[in-house]
Amino acid sequence: MTSPRSSAADITARAAALDAADPLRGLRERFLTPDEVVAYLDGNSLGRPLRETPRRVSDFVRDAWGGRLIRGWDEQWMDAPTRVGDRLAEVALGAAAGQTFIGDSTSVLLYKLIRAAIAARPGRREIVVDRDNFPTDRFLVEGIAAECGLDIRWVPSAADAGVRPQDLAPLLGPDTAVVVLSHVAYRSGFLADAAAITAQVHDAGGLMLWDLCHSVGVVSTELDRWSVDLAVGCTYKYLNGGPGSPAFGYVRADLQEELRQPLQGWMGAADPFDMAESYRPAPGIRRFLTGTPSILAMQPMLGMIELIAQAGIPAVRAKSVTLTEFALDLVDEQLVPSGVRLASPRDADRRGSHVTVDHPAFRAVTQRLWDRGVIPDFRPPDGLRIGLSPLSTSFAEVAAGIGAVATALRELG
Ligand SMILES: *Cc1c(COP(=O)(O)O)cnc(C)c1O
């Protein structure tokens, strides 16, 4: 048996060795890292700003907005939703150009794309969604089902896992209109087999919508190769776009002309400045826009998309796996003996970039940690979520963070 003291030193040394061997370690300097924050373990809820972000935003205000004024729309802003969407698609989604746009919030995009999917599958009466999906996804499905007179088929899944093809199979059939699932589950971090599930939904004649909020920017995603129909995702999590930055939507090229979305505003119309008498959808992906795009709020994500491009998703994913493996080792060594239970997959191939652990004291623990600059988040009923954003999180932070959880548990014990 090693003494607790030497084991703490040993963990620090292991973290230092992992940081020294990390090929992406140099990129951590690109983020704002205030001294008061000991360990930021919630980049999966709100990514850190890049160091360049204040400058990028103020340059935009001064030069683009202040300098070009209304001319900015013609010169560069009208195309920003699809230009930024295409770049994101290329860097992080495995999607060809012309299928991705930056739009409203994820919630609003879910509404638009689920409604469009249902309208494209007339006569099919069921929306399939899992019980453990993020609340907004479930709430929107409930609302849409009520509005359109459809039924919901709820996929059961274990809280510490996620939806597998065999869980879904009994719920699919000739009534399946659309299936809404998260690629990485927000609570457990379970990474779904998107290729297999999409194929399964297509075999039943339904459309597949993937919510990529917790996977975009950290997990290899091949929307085109998987023949995904629809996808949405946040840009303020692993894309570091800042609080409330606009979400992205993806609609497969060959579906675009067939789909009709319900919030038909002028920005999705064929010619917004035609001031036409009635709505005619724009050709292609633009028809999924509604109102004036949030150009100002798109600025911070631009730097992060380029940083991910520089690192490359395979390297980002490799670091994510090493970070979560290290976190699991520390959970087993330091937390499990205090009665903590792992609520995330052990298999790295089925795990995204966060790890959740359960313990009845975690609500109180989280408050204590936040006061000490150690910042994970709490997810009811008793889950502590440790989010590891590969470009900004160090192994030293993981060690400090999990060590602080162990200390707080002892104090509250
Ligand atoms: C974070 C998250 C959302 C957030 O939606 P907003 O409209 O941005 O509030 C939606 N779905 C999932 C799965 C999420 O993780």
UniProtKB/TrEMBL annotation:
EC number(s) reported in the record: 3.7.1.3
Cellular compartments per GO CC: cytoplasm
Cofactor: pyridoxal 5'-phosphate
Reactions catalysed: 3-hydroxy-L-kynurenine + H2O = 3-hydroxyanthranilate + L-alanine + H(+); L-kynurenine + H2O = anthranilate + L-alanine + H(+)
Keyword Calcium included in the entry's annotation: no
GO process annotations (BP): anthranilate metabolic process; L-tryptophan catabolic process to kynurenine; NAD+ biosynthetic process
GO molecular function, one term: pyridoxal phosphate binding
Classification via Pfam families: KYNU_C (PF22580)
Record keywords, A-Z: Aminotransferase, Hydrolase, Pyridine nucleotide biosynthesis, Pyridoxal phosphate, Transferase
Domain of life: Bacteria
Family matches, as InterPro entries: Kynureninase, PyrdxlP-dep_Trfase, PyrdxlP-dep_Trfase_major, PyrdxlP-dep_Trfase_small
Pathway assigned to this chain's UniProt record: Cofactor biosynthesis; NAD(+) biosynthesis; quinolinate from L-kynurenine: step 2/3; Amino-acid degradation; L-kynurenine degradation; L-alanine and anthranilate from L-kynurenine: step 1/1
Signal peptide stretch: none
Similarity field: Belongs to the kynureninase family.
Subunit field text: Homodimer.
Reported function: Catalyzes the cleavage of L-kynurenine (L-Kyn) and L-3-hydroxykynurenine (L-3OHKyn) into anthranilic acid (AA) and 3-hydroxyanthranilic acid (3-OHAA), respectively.
Protein name: Kynureninase
Organism field: Nakamurella leprariae
